[in-house]
Sequence to fold (132 residues):
Amino acid sequence: MSQMDRVAVNTDEAPAAIGPYSQAMVVDGWVYCSGQIPIVPKDGSVAQGIQDQTHQVLVNLQQVLAEAGSDFSEVVKTTVYLSSMSNFTVMNEIYAQFFEPPFPARACIEAAALPKGVQVEIDAIARKREVS
Fold:
C-alpha cells in the first residue's frame, strides 16, 4: 500500500490528539477513528458526569467522522471503554440517541484507567459515504 492510500483526518471541531496519533485515518474507503474522550474542543475542558461525558464523546466522534466524509449511519463497529461497568446503562441510553438500527457491532469493556481520568472513551470504524 502506498502512502497515498492513507489519509490522516484532522478537525478543530474535535479535540486534538494528545499523543502521536491521528484523529482518524481513511484507508481504501474505510474510516478508522481513534478513541474520543469527553474533551470540549472550544476550551479544552472535560465534560463532567457519565451522561455529559458520553454525549461529548459522541459529538467529538461525529465531528471526526464528518471531516472524514462519513457519519454514524456508516459506522460498522465501535469499542466503548468505561472506567466502571456501573456506567453501562447510562452510557447505553446516550449512545442509543446517536445510532439507528441496524446498530453497529460493538464491544464494551471496563478499563482500569482512561486518559485524563475520564469515565468513557469510544472509537469507531466506518465506511466513507458514497460520493454522488
Observations:
- The chain has one domain: 3-127.
- Residues 96 and 103 are 9 Å apart (CA to CA).
- The beta strands are 6-9, 24-27, 30-36, 75-82, 105-110, 120-127.
